[in-house]
Amino acid sequence: MSSVRPTIIIRVPATSANIGPGFDVVGLSLSLYLTLTVKFGSHSPEPFAITYSGEGADEVPLNPYRNLLTRVALYVLRCNNHRSFPPDLLSIHVNNQIPFGRGLGSSGAAVIAGVLLGDALGQLNLTRERMLDYALMIERHPDNVTAALVGGFVGSYLRELDPAATVASQVPLSEVLPEYPPDAGEDWGLSPPVPPFGIGHYVRFSWHPTIKAVAIIPRFELSTAKAREVFNMQRLAVLTTALGQSPPDPELIYEAMKDRIHQPYRKALIPGLPAVTSLITPESHPGLLGICLSGAGPTILALATHGFESIAESAREIFALENIQVDWKLLEVVGGSEVCED
Angle at CA 49, nearest 5°, toward 45 and 50? Predict the structure, then answer.
């Protein structure tokens, strides 16, 4: 009689992308988490259970062929000659602290959690670099998924591949993660496109430990797809050195975090954005270093060394003039994803 596998805990951080000018290049991992508790038991023909708690618990499908986490895990498994989920998988409980549609990397965290889940279920022992390949087949923008996987303050980009690998890396998402029909089972979709090696690359930047992030989160969702339709340019970040210097220079960082490429297009989508990013300054709020939109928004990220509550309350007052309520959280810059046995 074989022994039961130990419980596995998978933890993936939230992320903020762009950090001002670094559109689709720069990402930052933050101390909100998507946590999976994966339990095993005796081999059973019965389907395993998926349960959710926390943010979005009422919105997430619990069918493993419709849930993003388990669809990604199944993609990874099938690319590595595992026909289906292992028969000893008993349950997956997901606890989510990352709000949906707020620019804090909820979808990127789900993709990375799914890749890690597939690796753990299949006992594949994939390298971090190979895990990133799988993630980039699903989430084609590297900033969030890279930060969620490796952690800290990172820059990332898609490599130039040879012609065959380029074609393989650009297979439509509908083929990578097909919409499973209602009667889908383990015989459906057995031959997914395997990612080429080395799709993405990243570099870690320094981050001064006194800098924290105030996330100002309006109580409405904003579609990433809709926001991205209005621009198609990428730009190299100019503040990667400034955020690692000691002591942090507010004047330098505040100027470096200004953006004229993508944030102006968000004005119509996020009432109050221009006022928040122009009226809250290092001069008016000592301790503030810089302020920007987090990813596609609507969350606004203020980097600061102190004065956190004053910054957040000023932003709350500005949004209130637009009849928008906000929540705020003080977040740390954290390490990347973790997988451990309980």
Answer: 145
